[in-house]
């Protein structure tokens, strides 16, 4: 039994208490050995219990995991979009159309349609042939079609992809941009958007009417490439 009159040793776990010093002849604790009251290195760690969030992390489904709302842009009106579309499709490639029309006049101004009939005992057939076609006029007409196509590709893919504005959009003060950051689409995505415009516009005219009730004034081809048409000019892509 211990002597009740003898003073008790200090408790190292209590504040203000210091651990006992080793007496003469005792070995000092080596570096890395656990001190009294400290967990031993390598001791098994128990995972947090279900229903309790891990300290330092917000609970799943909280405000930190909510997707950010889309930016608010000054969206272009439906009438300005229609006007820019007509300008880009008819007015901008007009030099090519005029050259193709001139070639068609030269090619077919002296042409004649000749119909030849063939008859037998039990049948009668006719064959129509176009004669006196000018070959130079055909070449001019093909050159005009290629010129119009080249103007369309330059205007809708490279110019609009790099600056956000085709010539028609520039004349009416609107731009097409990426919805995520408001920058131009780039040539590759501008080509995809232009191709979808032709396909969806030919398949269903409702594609052109969709901006009338869409809150962001988008057509279907805008939704597929995540683009919006806004008022004003934008910063060109680097």
Automatic annotation (TrEMBL):
The chain crosses the membrane at residues 90-108, 136-157, 191-213. The keyword Membrane applies. It is a multi-pass membrane protein. Residues 1-22, 45-63 have a biased composition (Pro residues). The keyword Membrane applies. Residues 75-224 form the RDD domain. It is found in: Cell membrane. Residues 23-44 have a biased composition (Low complexity). Residues 1-63 are annotated as: Disordered. InterPro entries: Pra-immunoreactive, RDD. Keywords: Cell membrane, Membrane, Transmembrane, Transmembrane helix. This is RDD family protein.
